[in-house]
Amino acid sequence: MTDLRRFMAERPCLLVDFDGPVCAVFSGLSSRHVAEQLGAAMGVTLPDHLGATSDPFELLQYAAEISDEVAVKTERELTRLEVQAVAVASPTPYAHDLIREAAGRDGGSVAVVSNNSAEAIDAYLHAHGLRTHVAGIYARTSAATQLKPSPHLLQAALAGLRADAGTASFTGDSVTDVLAADAAALPAIAYANKPGKVERFAPYAPAATITSMAALLDAVRGQAISQ
């Protein structure tokens, strides 16, 4: 059992994934719709499994395998669609308050680290009055960006914030996030926001597993809870 209150007090630098921990990016504009639009814009014949996918990132990865030109075109279209999606995305309960509270602590800082586009994240944070509370956005800026599970974006965040792994943590809602944190020597807080995720995370031994962002909010506020 991890004492989250103590854990968060010892780690004032909060790195957090975007889709899931901050908002449900494709809650208003569905991921299936985005994948369909993206597939059509690629201008290539897709394998059957990709033609039916609801994961835009599978298409982005496939585009990179075709050519640099297709990858750049696909990434730009995905960014455009993500910007549309975040305009109608549902905020994750307690996430906005967590960002404000964590950023307002003495010595506290918050950064978003995500495979989503930096442009879409910036648009969402501005729309919800959160941008001034976020010290940095470390996310996809081009087709060449090294995405998680690579530790690249997390390492860039630590460097940009002038923080070290001993004073930071990373919260994400996927096994990919936990793997990226491990590769960056960062403790991961796994956000199990769907049924079955607690069990899915267990073999990867995150520092803590939570089922609501309220757990982190309470911990940052200094309430003695454990998860």
CATH class of the largest domain: Alpha Beta
**What is the CATH architecture term of the largest domain?**
3-Layer(aba) Sandwich
Which outline best applies?
A: globular
Task: Find the structural class using helix and strand composition.
Answer: alpha/beta
Number of strands: 8
Q: Identify low-pLDDT runs.
A: none
Major beta-sheet overview: 6 strands, parallel
State the strand order across the main sheet. 5-4-1-6-7-8
CATH superfamily descriptor of the largest domain: HAD superfamily/HAD-like
CATH level 3 topology of the largest domain: Rossmann fold
Task: Tell me the strand percentage band.
Answer: 5-15%
Number of folding domains? 2
Helix content: 40-55%
- Measure the end-to-end span: 6 Å
Work out the helix count: 11
Q: What series of H and E elements makes up the topology?
A: HEEHHHHEHEHEHEHEHEH
Computed CA radius of gyration, to the nearest angstrom: 17 Å
| Mean pLDDT over the full residue set | 95
Structural commentary:
By secondary structure, this protein is of the alpha/beta class. It has 2 domains: 152 residues, Rossmann fold; 56 residues, no CATH class. The strands form 2 sheets. A 6-stranded parallel beta sheet has the order 5-4-1-6-7-8, sandwiched between helices. Helix 9 links the parallel strand 6 and strand 7. The protein is globular. The model has no long low-confidence stretch (mean pLDDT 95).
Task: Outline the fold blueprint.
Layout: H1 4-10, E1 13-16, E2 23-24, H2 31-42, H3 48-51, H4 56-66, H5 68-86, E3 90-91, H6 95-104, E4 109-117, H7 118-127, E5 136-140, H8 152-161, E6 168-172, H9 175-183, E7 188-191, H10 197-201, E8 208-210, H11 214-220
Parallel strand pairs: 1-4, 1-6, 4-5, 6-7, 7-8
Antiparallel strand pairs: 2-3
Helix pairs in contact: 1-11, 2-5, 4-5, 5-7, 6-11
